From TrEMBL:
Keyword check for Iron-sulfur: yes
Family: Belongs to the complex I 51 kDa subunit family.
Gene3D superfamilies tied to this protein: 3.10.20.600, NADH-ubiquinone oxidoreductase 51kDa subunit, NADH-ubiquinone oxidoreductase 51kDa subunit, iron-sulphur binding domain
Domain NADH-ubiquinone oxidoreductase 51kDa subunit iron-sulphur binding per the UniProt entry, residue ranges: 317-397
Comp. bias (Pro residues): 437-467
Regions annotated as coiled coil: none
Assigned keywords, A-Z: 4Fe-4S, Iron, Iron-sulfur, Metal-binding
Protein name in UniProt: Fe-S-binding domain-containing protein
Domain NADH-ubiquinone oxidoreductase 51kDa subunit FMN-binding: start-end pairs: 52-214
Domain of life of the source: Bacteria
Transmembrane segments: none
Disordered as annotated region, ranges: 1-24, 75-94, 430-473
Length: 473
């Protein structure tokens, strides 16, 4: 696991998330002094600013934040459109399962008030009467509890912890866990905005998105800069470890790499694991969600692992697929067998034991498997295989013909170790005040039973907002 360095933007302009206190948890006083908790922007006005800015969610799906907020508000509007008359719930989703991403855990550790301010704003917009902060990182949990005690929010907010897995942050998994079940994806529909926690319309919002909502409420004049700034976790450099930084959309991927000490990049693993592999030619693309998607890749949660000249793309693909296979929640038969098959085939390719038809099989799976699991994990594995074939055909042919010296130096498929980056340390002072009153705990009985995913997953849903596997579109 590499260490992670935080690089603040050169001038630290207003409206940035990284702020000025990256090494220790920001106190309520410091947050208030910086203008936090003081924005006078009303809920309707804030929603209009978010719509005008085009702020997109930062959990991976990149869905427009204003649309998502409005959907929950409308569902909860006295039972309108089938909301069952339950008042909405808001959830700050800080569980990032992508091994190459650290931004959400760092944000909860270092800037908990910014996230809680955003959660409160989202509650005002949606009419929510109850909130949750969902996470797996114990340091982040301590930081959030301390922040809740320092500055009790106007609605009950509870911290719900989960195990750290790839799928625990997927939005239906979040709902199931908060309702006392396992943190595993459920069949859709219903989506959480239709029927979520306790059956209520529920906003599941990534913590960076909430931070940007809070910043927009405080500085609506900077709404466009706030919406176009984004946290990225960059890894793959030689000895420098990973970098967590904040950049504006639009910067070319190649400049992003070299600016952070990664020179001569030959490609990248994009979006966590969900954007797949891209070759050197794609590094001229701008860091821009829409353009990256149009180019067949994805920004996802902003985790980018650059391939240096000494990195083998086949080994990276094998690492990624093996990691996904190990993280399958084993609920959908097609995922259990499909993800494992992709992982095995890529590991065999890296280990020089692949059969001659391996490339054909990978190609077939990459086209036939997406969309057949209850969540996006299978899609990610299929995307890794397909993107490797498209971006690095010469290297695939080479691996079928002869052992690769780079792969031979490593054990193929040990992706968890090689792909995981460390969350930067943040000092969290001990809590001194009593915590705010909380609602029922996460093990409270389910108000509404949730469907479990079946062996034959549901068809793709038609209504927004879409489900977001953390770190996946
Ligand atoms: S697709 Fe895989 S990871 Fe997702 S719910 Fe099904 S079995 Fe679990």
């Amino acid at each position: 696991m590499t260490t992670t360095t935080i690089r603040l933007p050169a001038a630290q302009p207003p409206g940035t998330v990284l702020g000025t206190a990256p090494d220790s948890a920001e106190s309520a006083d410091a947050y208030r002094t910086a203008g936090g908790y003081a924005g006078s922007t009303g809920p309707g006005e804030l929603l209009a600013h978010l719509a005008a800015s085009g702020l997109r969610g930062r959990g991976g799906a990149g869905f427009p934040a204003a649309v998502k907020l409005r959907s929950v508000r409308d569902r909860g509007n006295h039972g309108e459109h089938g909301g069952h008359g339950l008042r909405p719930v808001v959830v700050a989703n800080g569980e990032e399962g992508e091994p190459g991403s650290v931004k959400d855990r760092w944000l909860l550790r270092a800037r908990p008030h910014l996230v809680l301010d955003g959660l409160t704003r989202a509650a005002e917009v949606t009419g929510a009467v109850r909130g949750f902060v969902y996470l797996s990182d114990p340091v982040a949990g301590e930081s959030v509890r301390r922040a809740l005690a320092e500055h009790p929010p106007p609605l009950p907010v509870e911290v719900v912890e989960t195990g750290h897995t790839y799928v625990a942050g997927e939005e239906t998994a979040v709902v199931r866990r908060i309702d006392g079940g396992p943190a595993l994806p459920a069949a859709k529909p219903p989506r959480p905005f239709e029927r979520g926690v306790g059956g209520a319309p529920t906003l599941i919002c990534n913590v960076e998105t909430l931070a940007r909502i809070a910043l927009t409420a405080t500085r609506p004049d900077l709404r466009h800069d706030i919406a176009r700034g984004t946290l990225v976790t960059l890894s793959g450099g030689p000895a420098a470890g990973a970098v967590l930084t904040e950049v504006p959309y639009g910067i070319p991927l190649r400049s992003l790499a070299s600016r952070h000490g990664i020179h001569g990049a030959a490609g990248a693993l994009m979006g966590g694991l969900f954007g797949g592999l891209v070759g050197a030619g794609a590094l001229d693309l701008p860091l821009e969600p829409v353009e990256l998607t149009a180019a067949g890749t994805a920004l996802g949660c902003g985790a980018i692992r650059f391939l240096t000249p000494g990195t083998c793309p086949v080994a990276t693909a094998a690492d990624a697929a093996a990691h996904l296979a190990a993280e399958s929640a084993r609920q959908c038969g097609v995922c259990v067998s499909g993800t494992a098959a992709i992982g095995d085939a890529l590991c065999a390719l890296a280990g020089a034991t692949a059969s001659p038809d391996t490339a054909d099989r990978l190609d077939r799976w990459s086209r036939g498997l997406p969309g057949r699991g209850a969540c996006g994990l299978l899609d990610a594995a299929a995307g890794i295989a397909g993107s490797l074939l498209r971006a690095f055909p010469r290297q695939v042919r080479f691996h079928l013909a002869a052992p690769c010296p780079v792969c031979a130096a490593d054990v193929p498929g040990e992706g968890r170790r090689r792909l995981t980056v460390a969350v930067p340390e943040v000092a969290v002072p001990a809590t001194t005040a009593s915590p705010a009153p909380l609602g029922p705990g996460p093990t409270a009985p389910l108000s509404v039973p949730h469907p479990s995913p079946s062996a034959s997953p549901s068809a793709p849903p038609a209504a927004p907002p879409p489900a977001a596997l953390k770190g996946t579109p």
